[in-house]
Amino acid sequence: MSAPRLDGLTVGDIVAEGEFPLSRDSLVRYAGASGDFNPIHYRDDVAASVGLPGVLAHGMLTMGFAVQPVVDWAGDPARISDYQVKFTRPVVVDAASGATVSVVARVGALTGTTARIDLTVTFDGATVLGKAQVVVALD
Fold first, then answer.
1. How confident is the model at residue 67 (pLDDT cuts 50, 70, 90)?
2. Are 79 and 136 within 8 A, CB to CB?
3. CA 34 to chain centre
4. What distance in Å separates the CA atoms of residue 44 and residue 59, rounded to the nearest whole number?
5. Which CATH number fits the domain 6-22+60-137, given the four candidates 3.40.120.10, 3.30.390.50, 3.10.129.10, 3.30.70.100?
6. Predicted model pTM
7. Taking residues 9-35, what's their average pLDDT?
8. DSSP codes, 43-103
9. Are 22 and 90 in contact, with CB atoms under 8 Å apart?
10. Is residue 139 classed as helix, strand or coil in its secondary structure?
11. In degrees rounded to 5, what are phi and psi of residue 62?
């Protein structure tokens, strides 16, 4: 698949969006896949005992969700040359209602043959990843 063309982009363009629902089951499956079995990701009592507002989604799971719309838009994960985030707020996954992480990917800068895509990643109306940026090589 060919990459989006650099000459068709303008700073500020939204290039991708996504919504990612999470459940407690999702967290347990991710724990198994990643090997991160920290009980703050699946046990309310442990989360509360360390002062957390509830069971939290894994940071790397949230980070993975956030970049996926950009990977889909770029057409090839090898086009991603850099990806950085700052974890700013946790994603609390309610036992009954779960959680939904929303992502908006917008062109932040165009340089040479690359685009910097700035991500706005939110949960429950609040930003959960700060300075989330993806550098994508384009045609």
1. very high
2. yes
3. 16
4. 17
5. 3.10.129.10
6. 0.93
7. 97
8. -HHHHHHTT-SS-B--HHHHHHHHHHHHHHHHS-GGGEEEEEEEE-S--B-BTTTBEEEEE
9. no
10. coil
11. -60, -45
In 3-state terms, what secondary structure has residue 37? coil
Per the structure block, which two tokens stand in for 38?
């920290």
Q: 134: which 2 tokens?
A: 């993806």
Return all residues near 31 (Cβ < 8 A) that are at least 6 apart. Answer: 37, 38, 41, 42, 58
Among residues 66, 53, 51, 74, which one has the least CA distance to residue 135? 74
Instruction: For residue 11, give the 3-state DSSP assignment.
Output: coil
Question: What is the average per-residue pLDDT within 70-88?
Answer: 97
Sequence length of the chain is 139
What's the whole-number mean pLDDT along residues 113-125? 97
Q: Give the residue carrying structure tokens 């309610």.
A: 94
Q: Are 115 and 90 in contact (CB under 8 A)?
A: no
Q: CA 19: distance to chain centroid? A: 10
